[in-house]
Design a protein that fits this description.
This protein is an alpha/beta fold. It folds into two domains: about 10-100 and about 195-205, Rossmann fold, CATH 3.40.50.10860; about 105-190, NAD(P)-binding Rossmann-like Domain (Rossmann fold). Helices cover about 35% and strands about 20% of the residues. It has a six-stranded mixed beta sheet, sandwiched between helices. Strands 8-7-9-10 form a four-stranded parallel beta sheet.
């Protein structure tokens, strides 16, 4: 694909950037013949990076840990799902107007249906933006949930035959439970990533990628 002055810019902001988004979105842009490029950025100051992207006329960005909650303060409007979560993971730039979305919620809703089809009580590790998406999805599905924060995380090792969603960056060896790790370098984490990235791509381009 030839990059020109009209090529649309997309990216993501996180404290420690990874390559999953770059690989996924640039491949999809080529596959669907979208004149756009995507790059992830490691930043320490979200507001400065966000303002710079507005100035450079980015079309949209993903928001990753630890900025999903604070990012809500800087967009002009939140869509209904983002309001429900109190966190965003996607921002669209429309002229001088910005809108925050939460595709984590849509992925969390789907993951709950896959790994908790009987709507049993779940344990959610973490209190950040991803946790808030799972909490909102649980409320909408009328699923009881327990939040384990940094002071109570170790109690997960005392659980047996429970359903646990890890919404933290911690690598934990949780056994004897249904354990859904949301880190992208794990099977369930990559599954979650594909669901939410599919929704982001739809926001960015209007194209809906089939679920395989």
């Amino acid at each position: 694909m030839k990059i020109t002055k009209d090529t649309r810019l997309y990216g993501s902001l996180s404290f420690k950037a990874g390559n999953k988004g770059c690989e996924y979105f640039n491949e999809m842009f080529q596959q669907y013949k979208v004149d756009a490029i995507y790059r992830s950025f490691s930043v320490s100051n979200f507001y400065d990076a966000f303002t710079s992207m507005k100035t450079l006329k980015f079309s949209g960005i993903g928001v990753a840990m630890p900025f999903k909650v604070i990012a809500c303060e800087y967009v002009d409007r939140l869509n209904l799902t983002a309001e429900k979560c109190g966190a965003i993971n996607t921002i669209l730039f429309e002229e001088d107007f910005t809108v925050g979305f939460n595709t984590d919620y849509l992925a969390a809703y789907r993951m709950l249906g896959i790994y908790n089809p009987e709507n049993r009580r779940v344990h959610i590790l973490g209190t950040g933006g991803l946790s808030k998406a799972y909490q909102a999805a649980c409320r909408d599905k009328k699923i009881e949930f327990v939040i384990l924060n940094r002071l109570t995380t170790d109690s997960v090792f005392n659980l047996t035959n429970e359903i646990v969603f890890n919404c933290t960056p911690l690598k934990l060896d949780v056994r004897n439970n249904i354990y859904v790790d949301c880190l992208t370098d794990t099977p369930t984490g990559y599954e979650f990533f594909l669901y939410q990235a599919r929704e982001q791509f739809k926001l960015y381009t209007g194209y809906e990628i089939p679920i395989t």
